[in-house]
Structures are given as C-alpha cells and as structure tokens.
Amino acid sequence: MSSANSDSDHHLNQLLKLKEFQPSGRGTWADVAEADWEDWRWQLKNRVSSLEGLQSRIPDLTPQEIEGARLADTKLAMAITPHFFNLIDGNDPDCPIRRQMLPSVQETETAPWEMGDPCGEDSHSPVPGLVHRYPDRVLFLVTDRCAAYCRYCTRSRLVSNALGYDFRPNFKEQIEYIRRTPAVRDVLLSGGDALLLSDSKLRQLLTELRSIPHVEFIRIGSRIPIFLPQRITPELCAVLKEFHPLFISVHANHPRELTTEVRDGLARLADAGIPLGNQSVLLKGVNDDAVVMKALVQKLLMCRVRPLYIYQCDLINGSAHLRTSVRRGLEIMEQLRGHTTGYAVPQYVIDAPGGGGKVPVNPNYVLSHNADRVVIRNFEGKVFEYPEAPDGTPLHSPPDTIEEPELV
Ligand SMILES: *Cc1c(COP(=O)(O)O)cnc(C)c1O
Ligand code: SF4
Hints:
Elements: H1 3-18, H2 34-37, H3 40-45, H4 51-57, H5 63-71, H6 82-85, H7 96-101, E1 130-134, E2 137-141, H8 171-179, E3 186-190, H9 199-210, E4 217-221, H10 224-227, H11 234-241, E5 246-250, H12 260-271, E6 276-281, H13 290-302, E7 305-311, H14 326-336, E8 347-352, E9 357-360, E10 366-369, E11 373-377, E12 383-387
Helix pairs in contact: 1-13, 9-11
Iron/sulfur cluster binds near residues 150, 159, 192 and 251.
C-alpha cells in the first residue's frame, strides 16, 4: 500500500471515529432517577457551578483550572449541565469540551486589543436589549442567562451577570421599536438563551412579534439543543411550530457535542418543520483542525443541521488562549470546499472588531481577473480560465492563450 493511501485510510478512520454518535451517559450521576435526568429543570438545578463541584468530579484539575474556577464568578460564571459535563474527558486536560467550559486563570490575561464588547453591540443599540446593526434585521436579547457558559463568550460583558451589567430587557420597549421600524423584517432572538424561557413566556413573545406585519422571519440562536437536549420537548416543538417561518441556529463546535440525545432533540425540531443552522466558533485546541471540522460539519448534516457560519474568535477580553489564526481558519476552509458536500461548507466570517458586522473571509480562488478572462483554481489547485469580454459579456472569439500562472 502506498503511503498516500495509508494516509487517507488514517484520515478516514479518524473521521469516522469522530462522527460516531455516543450517548452522553450518566457519568457521576448514575444514581439519579431517569425522570429527573430527563427533566430540563433538574439539569439546570444540578449544573456544575463551583470549584468543589468540579473537584468532586474531576480529581486532576490543572492549577490553571483551579485558579480559573476560583475567579469565574468575577468574570463569567461557570455552569455546566450534567448532560454536557459528561462529555468532558477528566483524564485529558486538553479535552476539547473541557477547554470550552472550564475556566482558566489565563482568562485574566488581557491584551490591549481585546475588548469587553468586541462587536460593538452596545453602541448599536437603539433601546436596551436590541442591537440594530444591519438594515433589515435586529438582534433581540431575551435574557442574560444560558444553560451553560462558554469561556470565549463574546457577550460575557452581560451574560451570567458576573460583571454586574444588570441586564434587564424590557420586551415591551424592544417590541415597540420593531413595530415602529418597518425596515426590520427579520428578528433574531438570542441572549443569553431564549429557550430558557418557559413555553408560555416564549409563546407570548413570539405571538407579539408575529403580530407585527413587517416581521417576516424569526429565528432563535440557541445552544440549548446542545447543552440541554432535554429542553427540546414535544410541547416546546408544538409552540415553536405555531410561528413559522421560524428557524433555529444552534451552536456546536466539536463533533463530540452531537450525542445521540442531541441528535434526537434536533430531529424533534426538524420534524416540527424548523430549518436548522449551525454557528461554530473557531477555537484553538477545540476545532482548529481540518479533520475535526470536517467531522463536525458532516455530522451536523446527519442531524439535518446546515452549517452556516464559522466565526473567527472575537477579541473578547481574556480569550487569547482560545484563539487561533485567520490563516489557520482559511486552511481549514480550503479543506472543506470541494472536499465535502456543499451543504456542509459554512461561511467563515470575522465579526469586525468595534462593530462592523460579519465580514466573509475566503480562500482566494481567483488568481487573476483580466480584461478577457478570469483565471481561477479549483479545490485541487488546478488552474482554469473563464473567458469574458471587458464589458462582462461572453467572448465570441477565443482569447489568446496565456501561460499558466504558477500554482499558489
Ligand atoms: C449576526 C447578527 C445578525 C444576523 O446576521 P445574519 O448574517 O443574518 O446571520 C443580526 N444582528 C446582529 C447584531 C448580529 O450580530
Ligand atoms: S451559549 Fe452563547 S451566549 Fe451563552 S455563553 Fe455560550 S456563547 Fe455565550
């Protein structure tokens, strides 16, 4: 067997292994009654949120994690649902789930270019809890609480309220703004996590939004299907289904997050007719690897979720240890486009620091664009020409042949 072949066998085996659906299991909660475990409120009540809780479940915490957990309540609270906690490998300090969820003392290291509000949301906020950056859509912050907290959260200035932001959304004011702003045709509910609201609160809010004639499109950005699949009850799905067209964007970063329970919850949402998308954050030691990312996007498709965005990690204070380079992100995108299903390929974006919004960043496939032709390369690096006249119309006579440009 040639070495190229054994390389690709190795690659394929790694990919298949990452894509296996596993249950989260009970871990250290083996004695808990089934009905409790399946109850999302039980899961929330029993989150791991203290150093003692961590130590009793992971004996070998690193000194950075111990110090990080001590400091968490002064930065971004620590909270991990039992379901999600069980995905952590307690024997591996580099576990990709652990890196996302366990505070590290490195969070206290901030660089001058890091910010508390890296996407400039507060400066684009016409009323508290509403961010109106793009002409036709608004971000509607519903709550400052999440089912669990991600250490790299771009909204950690308010999420979990560890920094005393004292976020008190006034739904009435937020809805009034949308009502008097006819350009807003798209409302994105986020926070925090809107699916933490009770079914009836959520129905109320969605009813209000749907009563506005110019609101065409509603979506919910939520990590709850991943952190707390127990929340995706048939009753919740029945509520959401009343407000179509309603989309949900979930947030998964590593294929291991897509457990059998998560897959089943996503299936309930998809069966309720809710189109599902995913947003990932590119994170060092979590998913800054082409095989991991490919496994993630392919596994998402198996759950009927369309990968939508990969975000370059925002310049949130204390996130340097989780960030990876844009060059790395571009390399990963190169390994996706053409190499796997088009539906599986998300758009890589940088949320422009200071408030410019999402900017797409792409590997360069256009080698040159001259008066009579566009020279392009494909995913394998092969070069092609697309002839066109200077005014953009198709050419009627063939252009002169040119020398093939060097591969890049
Ligand atoms: C991401 C985002 C949106 C939604 O943008 P899409 O490109 O439609 O996904 C809207 N408002 C704000 C402030 C956002 O950050
Ligand atoms: S779920 Fe979203 S809002 Fe909540 S902590 Fe994670 S990144 Fe932040």
